[in-house]
Amino acid sequence: MNKTYVITGAASGIGKALVEHFAKENIVFAGVRRKECLAELRQISVNVIPFLIDLCIEESITSAVEFIKNKTDKIDTLINGAGCVVAGAIERIPVSELKRQFNTNVFGHLSFTQGLLELLDGGRIINISSIIFLYLINLIIK
Ligand SMILES: NC(=O)c1ccc[n+]([C@@H]2O[C@H](COP(=O)([O-])OP(=O)(O)OC[C@H]3O[C@@H](n4cnc5c(N)ncnc54)[C@H](OP(=O)(O)O)[C@@H]3O)[C@@H](O)[C@H]2O)c1
């Protein structure tokens, strides 16, 4: 076995594709928000270790960090792949939805990364992120 990866957003899209790719030759901790996704991840490979994480819930992030720390003392690559898009006119989007987006795409990942930092000594952190930066630019130029 080569390296140890941690990937969030593993239920679908980019995150799931990365899990399938890297699990061929590596151990992959695969994070999902919904329990019903765990079984499907186990089917991919014995190299996949699924775990639950909701990036909007601090206790869930803490539990995920503890789960990983109990199973490994080194991570080679953390891929923060989870994300959501809340689209629409900035003046009409409910602030609660924007908070969910920022918590998922920014603060949740930051908290998760901080929790795993001691295991990442010499490792890589890859943030996929999302449309959130367009909001910021939009607000600045108006
Ligand atoms: N695909 C593209 O071309 C593209 C381009 C630029 C940027 N992006 C960004 O890249 C990221 C991944 O894209 P994708 O196409 O793979 O999207 P996706 O298929 O929607 O995958 C996003 C994943 O994030 C998970 N997620 C959402 N909210 C979460 C939360 N609070 N806690 C934990 N996990 C959560 C989702 O789980 P659930 O299914 O349980 O919600 C889902 O598995 C997104 O942020 C997207 O905006 C994508």
Describe the protein in words.
With 142 residues, this protein is α/β, with parallel strands linked by helices. The protein has a single domain (4-141), classed as NAD(P)-binding Rossmann-like Domain (Rossmann fold), CATH 3.40.50. Helix content is 44%, strand content 17%. The protein is built from five helices and five strands. The chain has helices spanning 13-22, 38-44, 58-71, 95-116, 132-141; strands spanning 4-8, 27-32, 48-52, 77-80, 124-127. Strand 4 (77-80), helix 4 and strand 5 form a beta-alpha-beta unit. Helix 3 packs parallel to helix 4. NADP nicotinamide-adenine-dinucleotide phosphate binds at residues 8-9, 11-15, 33-34, 53-56, 81-85, 104-105, 128, 130-131.
Topology:
Layout lengths: L3 E5 L4 H10 L4 E6 L5 H7 L3 E5 L5 H14 L5 E4 L14 H22 L7 E4 L4 H10 L1
Parallel strand pairs: 1-2, 1-4, 2-3, 4-5
Helix pairs in contact: 3-4
